[in-house]
Amino acid sequence: MRHAIPKKAVKPLIEYCNKLGAETGRSGAQVLAGYLKLMKKHAGYFFSDPWPVKPVQHWGSLWLQEDEDQFLRENRGYRDEIERFTVILLKRNVCLEGFDLERFDSEFNYYGRLLCMGCPVPDAMHLRKYLRALEESNAKIAEDYKLHPDDEFYVRLYNYRFSPRSLMEENMKRVELGFLEHEAGAEEKTCEVSNKSLCPYGARSLELIKYGHLVEALWKIVEYYDEHWHGNDPHRSTSSYARWYHAAEEDFLDVTSREDILSALEDGRIERIADERRKYEEATRQG
Predict the structure, then answer these.
(1) What is the dihedral sign for C-alpha 105, 110, 115, 119?
(2) What is the C-alpha to C-alpha distance for residues 209 and 184, in angstroms, rounded to an integer?
(3) Among residues 261, 250, 185, 186, which one has the least CA distance to residue 223?
(4) Quick check: is 2 in a domain?
């Protein structure tokens, strides 16, 4: 099979390279040379099929096709993964009628964001912003309450915001942020691209995503404990659900303490909660 892209695809591909070059501080020729190098490097995949008349549509598919996913998974590290990802999208959007640069851009952003799933940096950024806003709000509420101690509106607002439950939820957010920053590695990190191909941390994104997934799984267990030992589920009074709620029982995990949660990972308490959560989810699936 001839290793060449269709003639009608050349001009729109060059146009796209010029556009991307202007956005990234490179020349269009440099971008095009990089793409051509990748096509040659992975020629066995890129030129493996006859070019379709139009780009193939994958309606209803939220992820890559099986052969694309397999090609991507065969990567030998971050750089190779990003190269393969780019080759997949180039191949998807080259056809006999040209090169679909708008769809290439759209898929690059969509799938690049999916590849970031699990990264703790966006969640850490969100929590930092949330907690800063909460601190400002708390200060304003406390000030208004001090100025209007007999006003029912400010009294209710103050009592709600500084209730034991509200303070617990706030402290849980701080602990969650601590896990994202220290255990998942997001401390002092920010990101505005949300695309693994453009990740400012490069190969370190692999470790961020790995530990981000672990922290996410741990925090779901902590949230389950908080809901089922401290929460108020409307189904709790029914016999089929009552066994899964333990408000009357003694606490055995401090959800506002990162240190206690870390200890619980070592002494088996987290596994105890995770085991009950698995049984609860199985029971609720069965109705």
Answers:
(1) positive
(2) 8
(3) 261
(4) no
What pLDDT shows up at residue 285? 83
Structure-block tokens of residue 178: 């601590």
Half-sphere exposure of 93 (CA within 13 A, CB side): 20
Q: What is the pLDDT of residues 92-126, one digit of tens each?
A: 999 999 999 999 999 999 999 999 999 999 999 99
Both tokens assigned to 198: 């453009």
Which sign does the torsion angle of CA 52, 65, 20, 80 carry?
negative
Structural domain span for residue 279: 120-285
Per-residue pLDDT tens digits for 63-76: 899 999 999 999 99
Q: What are the structure tokens assigned to 162, written together? A: 């500084």
- Kindly tell me the sign of the dihedral angle through the C-alpha atoms of 277, 281, 283, 287: positive
Q: Is residue 252 located within the same domain as residue 271? A: yes
194 within some domain: yes
Q: What is the largest CA-CA distance in the chain?
A: 84
Handedness of CA 11, 41, 107, 201 (dihedral sign): negative
d(CA 196, CA 204): 11
Give the length of the chain: 287
Looking at the fold, whether 175 and 273 belong to one and the same domain comes out as yes
Task: Answer with the one of 115, 130, 153 that is the final residue of a domain.
Answer: 115
Looking at the structure of the chain, the number of domains it has is 2
